[in-house]
Design brief:
The protein has 160 residues and is of the alpha+beta class. Helices cover 16% and strands 49% of the residues. The protein has one domain: Immunoglobulin-like. Bound molecules: copper (II) ion (CU).
Length: 160
């Protein structure tokens, strides 16, 4: 019985690692670690994160993001204003320089899913469409996950 429990636990852990380690190669870009932070059922917006690596020798830009789960998806930065932490859409498209890695993660640049059209569920996957200036458009699967780090400050900073 105990062995069974350990096996079950091990398979859950490996599934979680798989969910987070998913990697999509798209032209000169490698997209990984795509996830959406779990939210309470009544929330109408959510934040998403991913890692974009540019293995080519030409800069690229993320010019549009969309998803069927939200009416709109923006790319946000976090700014400090009057000692408050606020979020604002990026003024310029997000650039992924040649040979560089851009990591959207909690407390930094993030995807903002606005006016959610459906409830998102932990460990479920939802599709996000990314449009890059050079590489073009691709869809990636984002897993809904719990935040690995406490980010209370960010949540207080929601200012839409
Ligand atoms: Cu935001």
């Amino acid at each position: 019985m105990r062995t069974l429990f350990i096996l079950l636990f091990a398979s859950i852990i490996s599934f979680m690692q798989f969910a987070n380690a998913q990697k999509v190669e798209f032209g000169e870009l490698v997209i990984s670690n795509v996830w959406i932070r779990n939210i309470p059922a009544n929330h109408r917006m959510a934040t998403g994160y991913l890692k974009i690596e540019n293995v080519g020798n030409m800069d690229d830009k993320l010019i549009d993001v969309s998803s069927s789960i939200a009416e709109e998806v923006e790319i946000h930065q976090i700014i400090f204003e009057n000692e408050l932490i606020k979020m604002r859409p990026l003024k310029e498209p997000l650039t992924i320089r040649a040979g560089d890695i851009v990591h959207l993660k909690p407390n930094g640049v993030h995807l903002m899913f606005l006016r959610l059209k459906q409830q998102i569920l932990p460990m479920e996957f939802y599709q996000i469409n990314l449009t890059f200036l050079n590489a073009g458009q691709l869809s990636v699967e984002a897993v809904v996950n719990f935040d690995p780090i406490s980010t209370m400050q960010h949540q207080d900073g929601h200012n839409h």
